[in-house]
Amino acid sequence: MFVPRLILTGVVLFLLIAGIALGAARPTSGAAPETRYVVRAGDTLWAIAAGRYDGDVREAIWRIEERNGIHGSTLQPGDVLMLP
After folding, report:
1. pLDDT tens-place string over residues 10-52
2. How big is the CA angle at 22 (ends 10 and 31), to the nearest 5 degrees?
3. What contacts 50, CB < 8 A, 6 or more positions away?
4. What is the pTM of this model?
5. CB 84 within 8 A of CB 64
6. Beta strand 80-83 pairing with 35-38
7. What is the DSSP secondary-structure string of 19-40?
8. Angle made by CA atoms 9, 13, 17, in degrees to the nearest 5
9. What is the C-alpha separation between 12 and 40, in angstroms, rounded?
10. Nearest 10 degrees: CA dihedral of 70, 71, 73, 74?
């Protein structure tokens, strides 16, 4: 009778500690917060991505398109883009 109660107490204690540990670990949203970018005349997604991201420009363009719901490369001056 004592052993099952001890096991139950151990399991409850483990779950409590695991819950606290998982609650304290917060996911990060990346190296930097999102920034807003106002499109100017002549801007292209390629130029915006190439000037602000390291690595593959195509991946940066895809991320910008996904974040802003852009389908195609047409930008209008005054558009506000969220840059992830």
Report:
1. 777 777 676 676 665 555 555 667 899 999 999 999 999 999 9
2. 160
3. 57, 60
4. 0.59
5. yes
6. antiparallel
7. HHHHHH------SS--EEEE--
8. 175
9. 58
10. -80
